[in-house]
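Supplementary Methods, section 5.1.

A reviewer requested that the exact input to the structure prediction be made available. We therefore reproduce it here, unchanged from the version used in the analyses.
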Amino acid sequence: MKDGTFYFANPDDEYKLYSMDSTLQNKAKLSDQANASRRISIQLNGDKLFYLQNTRASSEWPFRYTLHSYDLTSHSETKLLDYNVNSYALHEGWIYFSTLDAASICKAKLDGTDVQVLTESPLASAAIDIQVLNRQLIFGRGEGLYRWDLNASDSQSWDAYPAYPYALVVYQQDVYYINAHTLGLHKITADAFTNDTVIVEEGVLSFTITGNALYYATSEDMIYRMGLNGADRTFIAEGSYPIAAGNCLFYYNTDEEMKEYNLDE
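The structure derived from this sequence is encoded token-by-token as follows.
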């Protein structure tokens, strides 16, 4: 969200990139590129949107995601990286990204130039949900949570924690993640990977965080709100894939229609 405008993948138009105002009206299409998946990972940096585009049809597997930017001033779209990008983060003028082409972590300038491979040898699997906290890259990969110091000279020096992460969010000084085996939602201290606490036992498929509240969707298509430590759980709506933005919680109902819930209620 920027200046009262939401940016999203429109499920009613092949998950193309759209915008709409804070009243949820005046939808405008920004990109003509159709996507077979809602996973376009929109991030905002200054006056530019960064997002992934899937260039393959739903019948073609695996998908291939390239990284693009959209200039909110000139209304122009640019392909930045032709790699098969699995996850990315923006930090201090750089794009840090994992690529399925070589299962490596790389970085590039914000205009897509000066690509550098940070891992000297390919990783066993592609990193997911790359995020930056206190100049540390934090991400999931295979059987563990990983942390790497951006100032480190040894590209193979990783701090690891056995966690089987399915999805993760770095928020404040903690990492919240879903265990792929149990589908339990965990919270762990980010700077040392300690104090791993289960805050929802099982059945969590996706989640989002805003303010002092965490919203999560279960395998039974039920969305709940609770505190960051798991207290005061409240049912919100039937649906999946909640995303918090501004004072709204967006989610998909059981008919794959995008709905919204006013967080001020």
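DSSP finds no helices and 26 strands in the chain. These observations are discussed further in the main text.
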